[in-house]
């Protein structure tokens, strides 16, 4: 396979039709997309083309058996109009890990990095400067082979599409601790960014929404005793001045924001415990006043503070703290992402 990407530019740009002050997340896409087909056992010529609908055979396996994995990442523009990515290789490693679990082919890292950078260079005007503005990047892989036999497809498409985003304030996030439904199972695909994990979450989350909770804190499928993730984010608990988060395993997604926060916390002298944490411990900590914060972590919102949780009908409110750990982590991460501070970790990468 050749690494030289074939580029077909869009005739005109849609950028002037976009109201960048009023973006709703993930609805507007840039002028171009990256696309690469897999067939005859190998990835074919990678291309950048005008953003356009795909034509797929109705029997394409993705429609029937959900062979689909994806990633979420962002590009940021600094005050000198330079564009930066955040730990992009980690996204490629993870999409390949997800792909392996769904019996899909891995994508070569050099082609990914080259394609990603070429695509963002081409659509650079869509990355708006200013804190909070970013370009949300969605790489994904789907099984396209037209055949409904229940076995792994022999043909796939790898795509990257991009959507301009503003920082969003999610409002007060109140969460329900899962007692019945599960996000993932032992030996399952919880660690993978598999499309089906999201589909399976929509129904229980909509039930929680009806009860006035925006998200679910997922617990382990066996006992529902251990806290695992918050919605589609990893979850952190601050008990007194110690930060606690569950170790990643086959049921928990290994978030890049999560591991960055752990690193920053440790380097800021904050005690971090990566260990299983029980619902009962959380309730006791809440009752004694030791529970100071709960927050989710993920690329889209960086951190998402949680203001209350509910378990077996009881609601526990979490006091608001102006000097929260989550706001400290958010600021430190954003400063690295927007090139406003030193990056001792080498996480930031220019395009
Ligand atoms: C994507 C995702 C996360 C967050 O991962 P980041 O790399 O931090 O964006 C956490 N949990 C689940 C289930 C996810 O799908």
TrEMBL record:
Q: Which UniProt keywords apply?
A: Amino-acid biosynthesis, Aminotransferase, Branched-chain amino acid biosynthesis, Pyridoxal phosphate, Transferase
Q: Which cofactor does it need?
A: pyridoxal 5'-phosphate
Catalysed reactions, semicolon-separated: L-valine + 2-oxoglutarate = 3-methyl-2-oxobutanoate + L-glutamate; L-leucine + 2-oxoglutarate = 4-methyl-2-oxopentanoate + L-glutamate; L-isoleucine + 2-oxoglutarate = (S)-3-methyl-2-oxopentanoate + L-glutamate
Q: So what EC number does this one have?
A: 2.6.1.42
Quote any Pfam family the record assigns: Aminotran_4
InterPro entries in alphabetical order = Aminotrans_IV, Aminotrans_IV_CS, Aminotransferase-like, B_amino_transII, BCAT-like_C, BCAT-like_N, BCAT_family
Residue positions of the PTM N6-(pyridoxal phosphate)lysine?
193
Q: What class of enzyme is it?
A: transferase
Q: In which pathway does it act?
A: Amino-acid biosynthesis; L-leucine biosynthesis; L-leucine from 3-methyl-2-oxobutanoate: step 4/4; Amino-acid biosynthesis; L-isoleucine biosynthesis; L-isoleucine from 2-oxobutanoate: step 4/4; Amino-acid biosynthesis; L-valine biosynthesis; L-valine from pyruvate: step 4/4
Would you identify the family this protein belongs to, as annotated?
Belongs to the class-IV pyridoxal-phosphate-dependent aminotransferase family.
| Protein name from the UniProt record | Branched-chain-amino-acid aminotransferase
